[in-house]
Amino acid sequence: MAQAFLQNYKFVRAAALGLGLSLVVLCARADNFSRVYFDAATDQLVVTMRYRGTNPNHAFSLKWGQCRQMPGSALPEVAVEVLDGQALDAASKDFKTTTRFDLGELPCRPAKLTLRTAPHFYTSLVIPAARAAHP
């Protein structure tokens, strides 16, 4: 009986170690926000990402959600997923890049944007009402 217990213990310990190492690898590959802000002069969302890869040429894009009015919130909210064009690139070196995204097509303004990237990094900011165009 003691031998069976010892075999089960070794199996559980090995499985836990494997799971732990998998989580470390996943965390090491994660993209994360370094800085996010609204540039009023250009009406753009400026996103600086820190990421790991083999090259500094990762391109980031946005996958916009729908504008939703949330209970208890004065502003509509929009979930925005930040996508890495080279998400499967081997995580060998640290890089940082800044990308500007035009907000001219954002259908609800003012709005609270919540940007997300894998696995569980997110940040929020408020985008003010669009400026009136001058003729």
Description:
The protein has 1 helix and 8 strands, in the order αββββββββ. The protein has 135 residues and is α+β, with helices and mostly antiparallel strands. It has one domain (31-127). Strands 3, 4, 5, 7 and 8 form a 5-stranded mixed sheet that branches. The protein has a 3-stranded antiparallel sheet with strand order 1-2-6, with no helix packed on it. A hairpin with a 6-residue loop joins strand 4 (68-69) and strand 5 (76-84). The longest helix is centred in the N-terminal third of the chain and has 27 residues, at 2-28. The chain starts with a helix and ends in an 8-residue tail after the last strand. Residues 15-28 have low confidence and may be disordered.
What's the layout of helices and strands?
Blueprint: H1 2-28, E1 32-39, E2 44-53, E3 60-64, E4 68-69, E5 76-84, E6 93-102, E7 111-117, E8 121-127
Parallel strand pairs: 5-7
Antiparallel strand pairs: 1-2, 2-6, 3-5, 4-5, 7-8
Shape: globular
Overall strand count: 8
Individual helix count: 1
Structure class: alpha+beta
Which stretches of 5+ consecutive residues score pLDDT under 50?
15-28
Q: How helix-rich are the residues, as a percent range?
A: 10-25%
Order of helices and strands: HEEEEEEEE
Question: What is the straight-line distance between the termini?
Answer: 87 Å
- Report the β-strand fraction as a percent range: 35-45%
